[in-house]
Amino acid sequence: MAENFPRAFVCGFPVAHSRSPLIHNHWLRAYGIAGSYERREVAPETFPEFIRTVREEGFAGCNVTIPHKEAAFSLLEQKDESAEAIGAANTLWFEDGRLCGSNTDAYGFAANLDERAPGWDRGGVATVLGAGGAARAIVHALQTRGFRDIRIVNRTVWRAEELCHHFRGGTSAHGWEAMAELLADTSLLVNTTSLGMDGGSSYDLPLDPLPEKAVVTDIVYIPLETPLLKAAAQRGLTTVDGLGMLLHQAVPGFERWFGRRPEVTEDLRALVIEDM
Ligand code: ATR
Known about the structure:
It comes from Chelativorans composti. The chain has 276 residues and is α/β, with parallel strands linked by helices. It has helices spanning 20-30, 47-56, 69-75, 81-86, 105-116, 133-144, 157-167, 179-183, 227-234, 243-249, 251-258, 266-275; strands at residues 7-12, 36-41, 61-64, 78-79, 91-95, 98-102, 125-129, 149-153, 171-174, 188-191, 215-218, 238-240.
């Protein structure tokens, strides 16, 4: 017998590390909603067929994580402005039989900063470390929030140049050696690279030139206090860890599939930290 409560899931390859089930099942319990949220491991070559099957099985939708975000985007029959701008989708749903999608990473990034560092978008000058998929979502969020001078710094400069080309005006590409000069008038510094993740390879950033009012954030959240955030805190700067971005990016999907806008609470944050 078909279940008539809303069902959703996260798919990735691998997917065991995903904290999305923990987050969504916490909200389902907290709001007493009869629904389910599962985890599905899907190999890249079977992803399009998998999405077709899911539609027939009556799922409300799903989250998509690495490496499927670009493939999901290419399958969309309807996309919102964030998916369009970023060229990748992480939240899918079905509407009148059509596959629809959004990219909620940009929303999650901005919502986390709104909560933890109100006024973070006032300065309008951002330096973004990294030029991969994650940086795309961040640059889109920054443009949406009115940043008109976004410096993209990457080890491989041509990738930063490609990103600038994609986003057009208000962005510039740089190598790491330009950092000290770029930081002198930076109001927001964002790390989108995997540097510092899992306590892995670190980096030596000259944070001294950053103005006193600068906000420093890292989208890496394991460890919560990355080497970058530690160095920034030692300098007395406002720092924001990346866990809130993960929690907030889940909000729009939950609301769409399960019909209630969930709250990002300290309880939820503590639950995820306990699981790390
Ligand atoms: P994601 O989609 O998560 O952004 P990605 O596309 O692999 O992942 O991008 C990873 C980013 O981290 C890139 O900007 C990468 O720099 P390169 O483009 O030069 O590879 C950056 N990165 C990873 N390891 C790095 C390292 N050891 N030093 C400097 N940058 C690094």
